[in-house]
Amino acid sequence: MHLSWIMLLIVSAAAKNTTVSIQSTSVHFTSNAALTGILQIGLDTIEEGSKSISVPIGDCHNLDSYEVMTVSIKKPCRFFTGPMCIGRTTFLKPGVHESDEPVPIWSVFCEDEPDQKLEL
User: Fold this and answer.
1) What total number of domains does the chain contain?
2) Residue 100's domain spans which residues?
3) How far apart are CA 116 and CA 108, in angstroms?
4) In the predicted model, what is the mean pLDDT of the chain?
5) Residue 119 in domain
6) What pLDDT, on a 0 to 100 scale, did the predictor assign at position 21?
7) Tell me, what's the pLDDT at 120?
8) Angstrom distance (rounded) from CA 57 to CA 75
9) Cα 120 from chain centre
């Protein structure tokens, strides 16, 4: 069986969790992360110092940092003590959050803020 170059691109895109649209002779790739949004999180860790991590909004993301001293976020996020968003969780609102002791963080789930807040 022979695969055309179009089929190879589609298979490759599927492996990378990317959406492909084919229009005439041009191929357009759109990352699913671009569809859901990406958030930059600032972390200050014992092992690596300060760094920035790109996190998809609305999806669990495993972190490579476990001993975190400071977190800086622009959207509400839940931080987990276990991989794949399991374990103990802490919900943080946008801002800079510091700890005197290192905090084990293995994964994070960030959310979009609602456009309108309900006031009673």
Assistant:
1) 2
2) 37-110
3) 24
4) 77
5) no
6) 47
7) 56
8) 9
9) 33
Query: How far apart are the C-alpha atoms of 26 and 13, rounded to whole Å?
Result: 15
| Residue at token pair 């909004």 | 57
Name the most confidently modeled range: 8-22, 35-49, 77-91: 77-91
| Claim to verify: residue 60 and residue 90 sit in the same structural domain | yes
Q: Please check whether residue 59 lies inside any domain of the structure.
A: yes
Q: Is residue 115 part of a domain?
A: no
Q: What is the mean pLDDT of residues 37-53?
A: 93
**What stretch of H or E contains 111?**
none
The CATH number linked to 57 is 2.60.20.10
Residue 43 lies in a domain: yes
Q: Which long-range contacts (CB under 8 A, 24 or more apart) does 57-64 make?
A: 57/110, 57/111, 57/112, 58/109, 58/110, 58/111, 58/112, 59/109, 60/84, 60/85, 60/107, 60/108, 60/109, 61/107, 61/108, 61/109, 61/110, 62/106, 62/107, 63/105, 63/106, 63/107, 63/108
Task: Return the residue matching tokens 């802490």.
Answer: 90
